[in-house]
Each structure stands twice: as structure tokens, then as C-alpha cells.
Design goal:
Pfam families: zf-MYND (PF01753). This protein is an alpha+beta fold. The protein is built from eight helices and seven strands, in the order H-E-E-H-H-E-E-H-E-E-H-E-H-H-H.
Amino acid sequence: MKNTCSNFCLVCFAISMSCSVCGLTDRCMKRCVQCKAVIYCSKSCQIKDWTVHKLKCTKKEKDSFLDKKNNMQSQNQPVKLFIKHNHEKHCVLIPQTLLNPKCILNIISEELLIPLDSLNLIAKGKVVNEDNVSDIVFRMKIRQFMAVGEAQESEKGMHIGDIDTIVEQLNVDRNKAIRGLKHCGGNLIDALLYVGDSL
């Protein structure tokens, strides 16, 4: 039954919220799952009415449109991966359209500042690599990871030529050269002596 007056009133609302079979108005009413237009007080009333109702029961087009829209939106939303590294939790966004495993690992590598060749990912006790990363992220829908690997030191404010000089002269990795320059306030000669002494 529909509201009989043009303005919303509690009497008309109560009538419209009564059971389609017995007319009972209860605090907890049930709707037809498919059309959402008919209300029942119990499962037994729904079963009694089904022979008549099934002839006119159809899924609402509006709902199916909304379902499709929501499904499309969820497909376009990036996947959030939570990666723990050095006692910090990083949130990395991976586009759902990205299927290339190398690109997925590159995004994680860039976000964590860990070179790809020294990045080790673990998810649910499994080592994650190029062969299984797409499967783990998109099919198994695992979102929690642990990363192992030395993060790259920030080169911000450093002269790249100074870093390269320390790496070539002392045959050390780039991170060690950057830490040496930071420790010595950017002074190349002091950094060469400092890093050389630590070898």
C-alpha cells in the first residue's frame, strides 16, 4: 500500500510499512531481496505470498545500475598495500589495471626507497617475486607485506659528483658514501677520510 496523503505522515508511513500478507506492523520488517518493493513481517508470510509475488517480482533497474556503477568504481580504485619496513608502515597504491609484475615491484621499490635488486618482500610466509606478485595482490588479495632490504639514503642537498667520487675512490656502496658525506657536513675530503677509516 502506498502513502495516501501528499505530505509525509506517520500514519501513512506505518500503513506502507505493514506486512503485504497479514498487515502486521513490526519493528523488524523484511523486504523482498530482489525487488525491494514488498514488505513482510516473517519468512512464513514471504513464502505464502511467493506464488503470487514471483509473477511481478523483478530486480529494480536503478539498483542494477548502481551495482554496475559501484563495481566499475571498485575496479578503478587502486589497491592499497600495507608494507612494514624498518618499524614503519608504508601504504603503497597499485592501480588495478597494472598487470605487469615488474611494474608492481618497481612501484613498491620506489615508495620504500629500496633498490629493486635488494628488495625482498614477504606475504603470509611466502617470498614475493616477479613470478607471483600479481597473483598475490590481485587474485589472493593479500594486502599486508613485510619488506627486507636496505633503504637508499636520500641524496637531497648532496652533490652527486661527490657521492660518485667516494664510491669510485673507496669502492663502497652508494648508501655508505651518502652517510659519510652527511656525517661530515658535505665536505668531500673529510667524508673520504671518514669512510676510509671505517673500512
